[in-house]
Amino acid sequence: MPAPPPVTFSLLPRPTKAHARAGHFTFGPDTCLRISSGAEPAAQLLRTLLAPATGLPLRSAEDAAVVLALDPALTGLGSEGYGLTVGPHSVLLRAAQTTGLLRGVQTIRQLLPPQALAASPQRGVPWSLPCVEITDVPRHRWRGAMLDVARHYQPVSYLRRYVDLLALHKINFFHLHLTDDQGWRMPVAAFPKLTEIGAHRAQSMIRAGSDDHDGVPHGGAYSRAELADLVRYAAARGITVMPEIEMPGHVRAALAAYPHLGNRPDRVLDVWTRWGVCDNLLGVHEDVFDFCRTVLEEVMDVFPSPYIHIGGDECPTVEWEESPEARARARDAGLSGPAALHGWFLGRVGAFLTRNGRRPVGWAETGTELPDHFTVMAWRDPSHALAAAERGHDVINSHHRATYFDYPQSAGPQEHPAQPGAVVALRGVHAHDPVPEGASPEAAARVLGTQAQLWTEYAATPDRVEYLTYPRLSALADLAWSGPTPWTDFRSRLDRHLPRLDALEVSHHP
Ligand code: TNX
């Protein structure tokens, strides 16, 4: 029988360079850490991650065998890269920036036996890792995962677990889709009804395109303190939480709370109970812009993310076309017609974010319709990612046929009801190069990376969320960090990664 591949080749994502060496290093109760200035967060994370299964105290000591060192001179490692040397008697983790050390901690964790990831004490396991020399730098700056908590609310305790799983995969952006037609989950002090009314719907649709509803009320909202705490929790794992507040469409829950923000203030709407694209939009009067600024001020207070997502997707403009006020507004602004209010609206709100030192992000329908200063999430077609990059936008390639994890993973009868649409199979996710075909070097440089989307119309529980997310997110994370790898290489590493997900009790797809 051929010898099994060295354990380093079970790393996921795959490191840029890894050379296996002979021997092992074994952690024991007396193993200590030497922590250079600035490396404390990495030491903290290593202890937090290893404590439940191993009980290792990992005390600090000057003459320790395990060294965590921050060295700003290692500029070639960038902000997230790291170097890891494991010898029989020492472990040296080095990075130019703290985030790089946090990535390296996840690698140390993956080099240990999978039982190291368990939530409860594991006895009789030698906490050994193979000797190895690793240099690891991500290919892409944006390796994201979006969770839609508007269609189905998840408690913040679950969001922390979700973040932990992202961190294991070296994902660096957690995109939190906080508002939509079916629910508003972020409290805003000046507009309390957003959550008092907007966070609750009477029931939910069972199948798209049918009129069947479940009759079960659904609701939930976060407190400001919970969200601030989530931001800290994610930051300790090297993850930025990017909030999304949808506008000018996907706002039915906000309109149910504050009808005067719509195009027909006299009309009382419910928080939407259907799935699909809703016709209701924000109005274009000044009250609306005051509202958007007030909401975003609070959002910026809670979320330090340099990027703030303001939606922009699926915006049928019928209501604006039917509204004399909106038509007049378009005329006064010198626009070609009410449809052009979409770009005008996002441009105004985007400029407000820019003035506040943040970068607006939007969903692109074509790739070229968002205002100049937007970072573009191109979801409909890879050609849109290319068009946006060529127009000078920073782009996150989020092609739905490869990154929408709400679609089923196979056509098999064992799949639970999922978003109606094409199958998004693991292999297709793995084959999705974020850099679109035909991109010039300049355009390719504007592709920040890629991101997984989990829209939750059909994923109400953490179990469903995890089944749809894993292992497809493992493939996306691998691709975003390492670039394309042969399918067989990915598959063999995934086979050795699944026991880690099992140790973490992730209810992944078989
Ligand atoms: C489109 S893509 C949407 C979401 C849905 C999703 C379902 C995008 C920006 N909007 O509102 O949940 O399709 O796959």
Describe it.
The strands form four sheets. This protein has an eight-stranded parallel barrel with strand order 7-8-13-14-15-16-17-18, surrounded by six helices. A six-stranded mixed β-sheet has the order 1-6-4-5-3-2, covered by helices on one side. The model has no long low-confidence stretch (mean pLDDT 96). It is 33% helix and 18% strand. α1 (40-54) packs parallel to α2 and α7 crosses α10. It has 510 residues and is an alpha/beta fold. The chain has 17 helices and 18 strands. A hairpin with a 2-residue loop joins β9 (179-180) and β10. The structure holds ligand TNX. The site of ligand TNX has 9 residues, from loops.
Coarse structural class = alpha/beta
Distance between the termini: 27 Å
SS field, number of helical segments: 17
State which percent range the strand residues make up: 15-25%
Morphology:
elongated
The major beta sheet can be summarized as:
8 strands, parallel, barrel
Query: Which spans of ≥5 residues are poorly predicted at pLDDT below 50?
Result: none
Cross-sheet strand order for the largest sheet: 7-8-13-14-15-16-17-18
Chemical compounds bound to the protein: ligand TNX
Considering DSSP H and I runs of 4 or more, what fraction of the residues is helical?
Answer: 25-40%
Radius of gyration: 24 Å
> Please, what is the average pLDDT?
96
Let me know the number of strands.
18
Give a quick summary of the entry:
By secondary structure, this protein is α/β, with parallel strands linked by helices. The chain contains 17 helices and 18 strands. Helix 1 links the parallel strand 2 (about 35) and strand 3.
